[in-house]
Design brief:
Strand order of the largest sheet of chain B: 5-6-7-3-8
CATH topology of chain B: Rossmann fold
Shape of chain A: elongated
Distance between the termini of chain B: 27 Å
Helix content of chain B: 25-40%
Number of strands of chain A: 0
Oligomer: heterotrimer
Low-confidence stretches of chain B: none
CATH superfamily of chain B: P-loop containing nucleotide triphosphate hydrolases
CATH class of chain B: Alpha Beta
Number of domains of chain B: 1
Order of helices and strands of chain B: EEEHEEHHHEHEE
Number of helices of chain A: 10
Radius of gyration of chain A: 18 Å
Strand content of chain A: under 5%
Largest interface: A-B, 26 and 28 residues
Distance between the termini of chain A: 27 Å
Structural class of chain B: alpha/beta
Mean pLDDT of chain B: 86
Helix content of chain A: over 70%
Largest sheet of chain A: none
Number of helices of chain B: 5
Number of strands of chain B: 8
Mean pLDDT of chain A: 88
Shape of chain B: globular
Low-confidence stretches of chain A: none
Largest sheet of chain B: 5 strands, parallel
CATH architecture of chain B: 3-Layer(aba) Sandwich
Chain lengths: 222, 201, 241
C-alpha cells in the first residue's frame, strides 16, 4: 500500500506548505467562536452553557473549509486522471485523501479547541469531554464531506454547493457530538450513550464516505 | 503484446464523436492518431485509459498482465501536467513514482533523462510550461509501463526537448513498449501507423 | 548616511547587519534594568504580587498597536510609492505584532484569573485586543497564501489600511457593548498611577519598543535575503534548459 502512503504524504505536505489550508481552518474556527459572544452578549454563564454547541458548530463549518478543493484541485491539474487509473482501489485512494485532509484540518481544530474553550469559560472537565467528542466526531465530518467534494468536483462554485449538500448530512453528528459534550458537563444523561452513537456514526461514515465518493468520482469522469 | 480495438464508438453529451474505430498495435509499434480538432483524438486515448466508458465496441490486450486492467498497465500523459506547484520538482516525481508503484532508485535517472536534474529542489511552480511538461514525461521513465498514451506530447516542448522525447519514445519501443499518441504534427517516429479520425472510413 | 540611502536594499542590509548587535545589546540592558525596577516596585495594596504582570501586559498592548501603526505606514509606502522595502517592512512587522498581541492576551488572562476568577471575560479591552490579534493572523495568512510577494504586498497593504481605519471603530463599539476592564490610567491631562509604578512601566515600554525595533530589523533582513533566494531560484529555473 505504498501508493496510498505516498498520496497521504503528498497531501499533508501540500496542506502545510505556503498557500495550503492547514492553519486556515483553525483561524476560521477561532474567528467564528469569537463572533458568537458579540451576537449573544458577553454573559459568561450563558456562554458556558452554550459553549459546546458553539464550538461544535464552528468546528463543523471549519472542517468543511477547503474541502471543495480536495478533488477539484486534482481535477484541474490532471492528477485526478492518474488517481483514477491507479492500481490501488479508488475507495482507498479517496479514503487516503480524506485522512490527509482530516490530519491537516481536523486535528489542528482538536488541538486548538481547549484554548478556544477558555474564551467560553469552559472548565477542565468540560474541555476534556469536548476534546473527546471532537476526536470521535470530526472524522465523520470530513468523510461525509468527501461525498460532497466528489459530487461537486467538476463544478465551478463547488464550495457553496458542497456546503448545501453536506451540511444536512452532518445533522446527526452535530446532535450527538453536542449531546455527548453536554452530558459530560451537566448531565443528566450519561456521557456514554450519545458518545457511543457518535462513534458509531463516525465508523459508518468512514465506510460509506469513501464508497459514495469513489462512485461519484467514477460517474463524474464519464 | 498487442493492443487492439474493434468498432469503438464514443458518445459525449448525446453527440456521436466517432463510431466504428478499429486499430491494432503490437509491441514496438506506434499508432499516431490524427485529425482536426474536436474529432475525438483525446476521447479515444481516454477510452483506452479507462477514463471514459466505452459506448460500443471493445478493447483487448494480448500478452499483458492478466491480473491488471489495461489502464493499470498504461501511462497517460494528458494536456495537464498533474504537478503540484507547492511541491519541489523532486517531490512531485517522487510522489508519482511512489504512487504508481515504481522504484525510488529510478528517480534520479528519470530526472536526468528529462534534463531537470539541476532543478530537483526548486518548487514546481517556478518551472516554465516546457519544463513542467518534461517533468510530467519523467514520470513515464521512472515507472515502467508497457503502454504509453500520449495526448499531443510535443506541445509546449522546444525543438531540443522534442528531439529528446522522440529518443525516449524510440527507447521505449525498443524495450517492447507500444505507444498511442494523438498528434497534430509529426512524431518523428519512423514507422508509425496512422489512424485518421473524422474521415469517412 | 542619508535616510534615502537606506531605501536601497543592499545598503539596508549592511546597515541592518551593523545595527542589529548594538540595538540588541541595548535592548537587553534596558530590559534588564526595567525588569529590575519593576520587581522592586511596590505591590498594589489590593492585588499584591500579581500587579507585576502589568509591566509585561501594558507594554505588550502598546506594542501590538504600534506594530499595526508601523504596518499602516509601510502599507502607504507600498501603495503610494510602490517601494519594495515598504513591503518588506510590512511583512516583517506582522508576526511580531501578532506575538505582542498574543503576549498581551496571555498575560491579561493570567492576570484576570486571580482578579476576576476566570481566564477570560468578554470585556471591551480584552475583546478588542483579541480582534486585533485575529486581524494580525488574517494578514499573516494573506502573506502566506499569495506566492508572489509583490502581489501579496498590495493585497496586504489594503487590508492593513482598512484595519487601521476599522480598529478604532471596533474598539469603540466594543466599549459601548460592555466593559469590565478598568479605564485607562493615562491621559493627556495627567495620570492616576503612582510614579513608583509609572517609571518602571515607562522603562519597560521603552525596552519593549527597542525589542520591537531589533526584531523588526532582523525580520526585515531575513525577508530581504529570502526574496533574494527566491529570485535566484527563479533565475535558475529560467536559465536551465
Amino acid at each position: 500500500m505504498s501508493a496510498l502512503a505516498a498520496l497521504l504524504v503528498r497531501d499533508i505536505r501540500i496542506g502545510v506548505r505556503v498557500g495550503g489550508g492547514a492553519l486556515m481552518g483553525v483561524l476560521f474556527f477561532l474567528v467564528v467562536v469569537t463572533l458568537v459572544p458579540f451576537a449573544v452578549g458577553p454573559d459568561l454563564a450563558l456562554l458556558k452553557r452554550i459553549g459546546p454547541a458553539i464550538l461544535w458548530l464552528a468546528a463543523l463549518l471549519a472542517s468543511l473549509l477547503a474541502l471543495d478543493r480536495l478533488f477539484a484541485a486534482d481535477h484541474e491539474d490532471g492528477s485526478l486522471d492518474l488517481l483514477l487509473m491507479s492500481r490501488a482501489p479508488l475507495e482507498l485512494v479517496v479514503a487516503a485523501k480524506g485522512l490527509a485532509h482530516w490530519l491537516t484540518t481536523g486535528l489542528p481544530l482538536i488541538v486548538a479547541a481547549p484554548l478556544i474553550g477558555l474564551l467560553l469559560n469552559l472548565d477542565p472537565p468540560a474541555e476534556a469531554a469536548l476534546v473527546l467528542t471532537f476526536l470521535a466526531g470530526t472524522p465523520a465530518l470530513t468523510f461525509i464531506g468527501l461525498i460532497g467534494a466528489a459530487i461537486s468536483v467538476a463544478l465551478r462554485r463547488g464550495g457553496l454547493l458542497l456546503a448545501v449538500l453536506v451540511l444536512p448530512l452532518t445533522v446527526p453528528v452535530l446532535i450527538f457530538g453536542v449531546a455527548a459534550a453536554n452530558a459530560a458537563i451537566s448531565g443528566p444523561m450519561p456521557f456514554g450513550t450519545p458518545f457511543t452513537i457518535l462513534c458509531a456514526l463516525t465508523l459508518a461514515s468512514l465506510v460509506i464516505g469513501p464508497f459514495a465518493a469513489a462512485a461519484a468520482l467514477r460517474q463524474e469522469m464519464e | 503484446m498487442r493492443l487492439s480495438a474493434a468498432n469503438l464508438a464514443c458518445v459525449r453529451g448525446g453527440r456521436d464523436v466517432f463510431t466504428g474505430i478499429s486499430f491494432s498495435v503490437a509491441s514496438g509499434e506506434t499508432l499516431a492518431i490524427t485529425g482536426r480538432n474536436g474529432v475525438g483524438k483525446s476521447s479515444l486515448l481516454r477510452i483506452v485509459a479507462g477514463l471514459i466508458r466505452i459506448t460500443a465496441g471493445e478493447i483487448a490486450l494480448e500478452g499483458g498482465d492478466p491480473e491488471l486492467t489495461i489502464a493499470e498497465q498504461a501511462h497517460y500523459l494528458g494536456h495537464q501536467d498533474a504537478l503540484k506547484p507547492a511541491l519541489s520538482v523532486g517531490e512531485n516525481l517522487r510522489f508519482w513514482t511512489g504512487f504508481l508503484g515504481g522504484k525510488a532508485t529510478e528517480i534520479t535517472a528519470a530526472l536526468e533523462a528529462a534534463g531537470l536534474h539541476a532543478l530537483a529542489d526548486l518548487p514546481a511552480g517556478y518551472l516554465s510550461a516546457g519544463q513542467r511538461r518534461r517533468l510530467s514525461i519523467a514520470r513515464l521513465l521512472a515507472v515502467r509501463r508497457p503502454i504509453w498514451l500520449l495526448d499531443e506530447p510535443m506541445s509546449t516542448l522546444d525543438a531540443a526537448a522534442q528531439e529528446r522525447l522522440t529518443g525516449l519514445m524510440h527507447t521505449h519501443l525498443a524495450q517492447g513498449g507500444l505507444i498511442l499518441s494523438a498528434t497534430h504534427g509529426t512524431l518523428g517516429i519512423g514507422a508509425a501507423q496512422e489512424l485518421r479520425l473524422g474521415e469517412a472510413a | 548616511m542619508a535616510l534615502t540611502d537606506l531605501a536601497n536594499p543592499s545598503r539596508f542590509l549592511s546597515f541592518a547587519n551593523r545595527a542589529i548587535p548594538w540595538l540588541g545589546g541595548f535592548t537587553v540592558i534596558v530590559l534588564a534594568f526595567g525588569l529590575n525596577q519593576a520587581m522592586s516596585a511596590p505591590n498594589d495594596y489590593q492585588q499584591g504580587d500579581t500587579v507585576k504582570i502589568m509591566y509585561l501586559h501594558v507594554p505588550s498592548a502598546w506594542l501590538s498597536m504600534l506594530a499595526w501603526a508601523v504596518m499602516s505606514v509601510a502599507a502607504l509606502g507600498t501603495l503610494v510609492w510602490r517601494h519594495p522595502l515598504a513591503d518588506v517592512a510590512a511583512k516583517a512587522a506582522a508576526p511580531i505584532g501578532a506575538a505582542f498581541a498574543l503576549l498581551c492576551l496571555i498575560t491579561g488572562s493570567l492576570w484576570g484569573r486571580p482578579e476576576w476568577g476566570t481566564y477570560w471575560v468578554w470585556d471591551a479591552r480584552l475583546t478588542s485586543e483579541l480582534v486585533l490579534f485575529l486581524l494580525y493572523l488574517g494578514v499573516i495568512a494573506l502573506w502566506r497564501t499569495v506566492e508572489d510577494p509583490a502581489r501579496a504586498a498590495r493585497a496586504a497593504a489594503i487590508l492593513t489600511l482598512v484595519g487601521a481605519i476599522d480598529l478604532p471603530i471596533i474598539k469603540f463599539s466594543v466599549v459601548w457593548w460592555n466593559t469590565l476592564h478598568q479605564g485607562s490610567s493615562f491621559g493627556l491631562t495627567g495620570s492616576t498611577i503612582y510614579p513608583t509604578m509609572l517609571i518602571p512601566l515607562l522603562i519597560m515600554a521603552v525596552a519593549f519598543t527597542l525589542l520591537f525595533a531589533t526584531l523588526h530589523l532582523a525580520a526585515m533582513r531575513n525577508e530581504i535575503l529570502r526574496r533574494r533566494v527566491r529570485t535566484q531560484r527563479l533565475m535558475q529555473a529560467s536559465t536551465a534548459n
